[in-house]
Amino acid sequence: MTDHTPETASGPIALAALESSGAGWWRVLDTDTAWWSPTMFDLFGLPRDNGVPTVEDLYRLYHPDDARMAASSFLKLFKAEEPVTLRYRAVHPSGEVRQHLTWGRRQSADADGNRWVVGMVMDVTEHVDDARLIEGERAFRFVADHTSDMVVRHRMGVGLTYVSPASRAVLGYSPSEMMGKAPADLVAPEDVVRIRGLLAERIARREAVSSEGYEYRGLHKNGHQVWLEANPRLVINGAGEMTEIVDVVRDISARKQAEAELHAARIEAEAASRAKSEFLANMSHELRTPLTSILGFSRLIGAGGGLSEGDRGYLDLIRSAGETLLTVVNDILDFSKLEAGALTLDPEPFSIAALGEGATALLREQAEGKGLELTCEVADDVRLTGDVTRLRQVLLNLLSNAVKFTDAGAVRLVLSAEDGGDGSTVLVASVTDTGCGLDPAQIDQMFDRFTQADGSVSRKFGGTGLGLAISRRLMDIMGGEIGAASDGATGSNFWFRVPLTLSADEAPTASEASRDSIGRSLRVLLAEDNPANRTLVAALLGAMDVALDMVENGEEAVLAASTTAYDLILMDMQMPVMDGPAAARAIRALGDATPIVALTANILPEQMEQCRSAGMQGHVAKPIDPRALMSALSEYARPAQEKAAAA
Question: Is there a smaller number of Cβ atoms within 10 Å at the N or the C end of the chain?
Answer without folding.
Answer: C
